Amino acid sequence: MLEQLLIFTRGGLILWTCKELGNALKGSPIDTLIRSCLLEERSGAASYNYDAPGAAYTLKWTFHNELGLVFVAVYQRILHLLYVDELLAMVKREFSEIYDPKRMNYNDFDETFRQLRKEAEARAEELKKSKQLDRPVSDRKKQGQVKKGGFEGGNKKKSEANDGGDGDTGKSYKLENGHSNGNHVNIEGSRAVVANGKENASSNVGAFDVSKLQKLKSKGGKKTNAVVSKGSKVDVDPKKKVTKKNRVWDDSPQDSKLDFTDPVENGNENIEVVATDHGESMMDKEEIISSDSEAEDEEVGKESKPDTKKKGWFSSMFQSIAGKANLEKSDLEPALKALKDRLMTKNVAEEIAEKLCESVAASLEGKKLASFTRISSTVQAAMEEALVRILTPRRSIDILRDVHAAKEQRKPYVVVFVGVNGVGKSTNLAKVAYWLLQHKISVMMAACDTFRSGAVEQLRTHARRLQIPIFEKGYEKDPAIVAKEAIQEATRNGSDVVLVDTAGRMQDNEPLMRALSKLIYLNNPDLVLFVGEALVGNDAVDQLSKFNQKLADLSTSPSPRLIDGILLTKFDTIDDKVGAALSMVYISGAPVMFVGCGQSYTDLKKLNVKSIVKTLLK
Amino acid sequence: MEGMEQWRNEAKQWLQQGIEYAHQIPPTQLYAAAAVLLLTTLFFLIIRLFKRTKSSTIVLTGLTGSGKTVLFYQLRDGSSHQGTVTSMEPNEGTFILHSESSKKGKIKPVHLVDVPGHSRLRPKLDEFLPQAAGIVFVVDALEFLPNLRGVSEYLYDILTKASVVKRKVPVLICCNKADKVTAHSKEFIRKQLEKEIDKLRVSRSGISEADVANEFTLGIPGEAFSFSHCSNKVTIAESSGLTGEISQVEQFIREHVRP
Q: Where is it mainly found (chain A) (predicted)?
């Protein structure tokens, strides 16, 4: 049974709710849906799962883009109601006929809704019965086709409803009611052509992804080993040993100790090193954006693009002047495909580009084309808005303010740098320390990379050049303990910020991820910064989702810490292939706090959303 | 070279023909045409001048969940109908305030804009600020302390925008949800906001020369910040969107939109 069905405008006013289903919803599922799904450009997904104490709901929605309305249905997750999509489509159709922008009260819609619901439920009942009828008949080979046809028919119906049913679906349903079940199912089966199984599967994957992301963020992270996302191998490697074993990369036996820490430090003290001052960090410099960019964009949009054919150009010009009635999905297809390809050439992960295009399509379907605009420019404008929305941070990324707040509470502000091997954690840690020093904040480094040879020396050199204290315990120590002691030391000597460097690790290396999770759980840092390089391609999606998943699963606390921010490195090596930033922000929801663009201390800057969006859509 | 010569000769001929034609028109017609042209340009200039001095847009802004959409519909229709959800798009309307619809006489309609407060939709505010004659900053008086930092940062950002400072746009801080028992008083809210903005001033002034976001600094350096230091007028009021107690907001709107 449906819990609730709401109709509201995009501006936020609720136009109609079903008064029969008077159950008050626990928690605030609608607001959460809007904030975590629709505003995050995931509106192409099939459904959304919401967990509140005492209830688990699934929400499905559909838009009417022309009138700016949203229709949302809420039901209990354990009931797998099949008729919800069709019901939403029918409600959309009926309501848009009686909708009037000036009218606020739609009490007469109650009757209509009651009838629609009865119809939808009746149809669902019939479908169930038809499936049951098929089962005893399926023994015979000939009738085997009927059963398959029945299921495919059911699939097709669902996918048709997903497309926002028109008169066609209405007709097919009337047909069903007229004929006997067996006959009709046969007809359906033969017609069921394109098993939109792919579409269903992808929408299921999408739903699962979103639901997984929600699970990560909700309390009570259960161990979800049934991972649907592509290319994941779950290494369940039960490690009973407590001590850390040496990593063996090839077959040669390693018997000598790896710890080459210098027990004597005399040699270094004699060298007098002056604190480095390289001038202002680029974080504080204004970004010089070309001022003619805005005019350029509009001009490029209006001029005809070189890749449209002559025939298509003429018809699209005519359409643009006349202003076509309503945008259909088939019209949006070519423009969206071109946009998706362009995004992929800019190094956006394929999965992300796909989801983004679906979301933009969902928001444009059914909208009226304004006159003198082409479809491609409408799509481009919608995509630009969506990109700006994704890249704009959800919360404030003012680190200096956070540091001051922590200072007042007399605690050091702890930042942990995590990431895979070789992305530039130690280098960028030094850059962040330099920037903080410029703002008169006292910094301390903690060398918790106890595996890689030279990591501690590297940090020691940076600390000497910047003249800041460093806490280190050499190699082959437990990083979590080292970090804990570093924080205690910082509290004692009054440092404002502690920057913790960790060893690089691959996202599917279970024991290392467990160690990282332990470090984060034990020390509860204020900021978990994921360091990712801008050169990464589709792997960015995998890295971030696995890191988040492992941090959630392997943490023993009820509310696990996830990645709070992203540091994008090696930005100077990519010219305009800036898509990695978009992939990372989309998949994790964390804002990009810094961008590393070089190897000296001043090469650290903030992300300029407008210039990235411009580069992505050029 | 010969081509150029030919060109020049042709141009001269055309010019002479044009002048002859002009001489043929009786002078009165010419003067009439010129006068009409002059008058229309003057007319347009005057209209534009008038329009610029009288912008009657009031912008409703604040954090998400503070009650802006409810206030919008209260001002427009006198009731918030069946409730609201998080807005995804701005609500705009030009209308006469509901409470004044019974008054007789010519009342100028007010252009009211309710901008979504969700942080992802912040850039939308910049579209409406240049035409704003007044800003109503809605604060949730019930859940004030948990959101204190967010509220003060947003308020600080608005008070330091160039379009607000240069045009001295008046700001009304509206403490919404005042009908609830545990809502804070407006004096408490004012003091807390002033303290927070003071701290923000200190932390932002370190980067303010190059921080693209904040174009101006607030207040007098060295003194504790108070809203009276702002060059534009900042007042504080209470309201309750759900019960309809919005008289102070309406007063503010009427003050700044000449009827």
A: endoplasmic reticulum
- Facing B88 at nearest CB: one of A10, A286, A395: A10
Q: Which helix (H) or strand (E) holds A565?
A: strand A565-569
Pairwise CA distance, residues B231 & B170, whole Å: 9
Give CA–CA dist B220/B222, Å, rounded.
Answer: 6
Cross-chain residue pair B203–A398, CB shorter than 8 Å: yes
Which is it for strands A413-418 and A527-533: parallel, antiparallel or unpaired? parallel
Tell if the CB–CB gap between B123 and A388 is shorter than 8 Å: yes
Contact B107, B259 (CB under 8 A): yes
Partner-chain residue, chosen from A34, A393, A400, that has the shortest CB–CB distance to B206: A400
State the ipTM, two decimals: 0.71
Q: Is the pLDDT of residue A305 over 60?
A: no
Nearest C-alpha of chain A: how many angstroms from B31? 39
Q: Which residues pair with A532 in a beta bridge?
A: A568
A61 DSSP 8-state letter: E
Quick one: chain B helix, strand, coil %, rounded to 5?
50, 15, 35
User: Do A603 and A572 meet the contact criterion of CB atoms below 8 Å apart?
Assistant: yes
The packing angle between helices A329-345 and A579-588, to 10°, is 120
* The pLDDT value given to residue A230: 41
Rounded to the nearest 5 degrees, what angle is found at the Cα of A182, between the Cα atoms of A179 and A188? 80
Q: Say if CB A607 and CB A592 are below 8 A apart.
A: yes
Judge: B91–A16 Cβ closer than 8 Å, yes or no: no
Band (pLDDT 50/70/90 cuts) for residue B214 is low
A117 near A91, Cβ under 8 Å?
A: no
CA distance A11 to chain B (A): 5
Contact at CB, B203 and A396, closer than 8 angstroms: no
Which of these ranges, A199-203, A535-539, A558-562, A608-612, has the smallest mean pLDDT? A199-203
Pick the more confident residue, B222 or B246.
Answer: B246
Lowest mean pLDDT among A374-378, A561-565, B220-224: B220-224
Q: Residue B81 and residue A31: Cβ atoms within 8 Å? A: no
> What contacts A128, CB < 8 A, 6 or more positions away?
none
Highest mean pLDDT among A564-573, B107-116, B166-175: A564-573
Q: Quick check: A7 and A30 in contact, CB under 8 A?
A: no
For every residue of A22-58, DSSP letters joined together read -PPPSS-HHHHHIIIIITTT-TTSS-EEEEETTEEEE
- Chain B residues with CB under 8 Å of A40 CB are 120
Q: Give A599's DSSP letter.
A: S
pTM listed for this prediction = 0.67
Greater confidence (A411 vs A234) lies with: A411
- Is A612's Cβ below 8 Å from some Cβ in B? no
Q: What radius of gyration do chain A's Cα atoms show?
A: 29
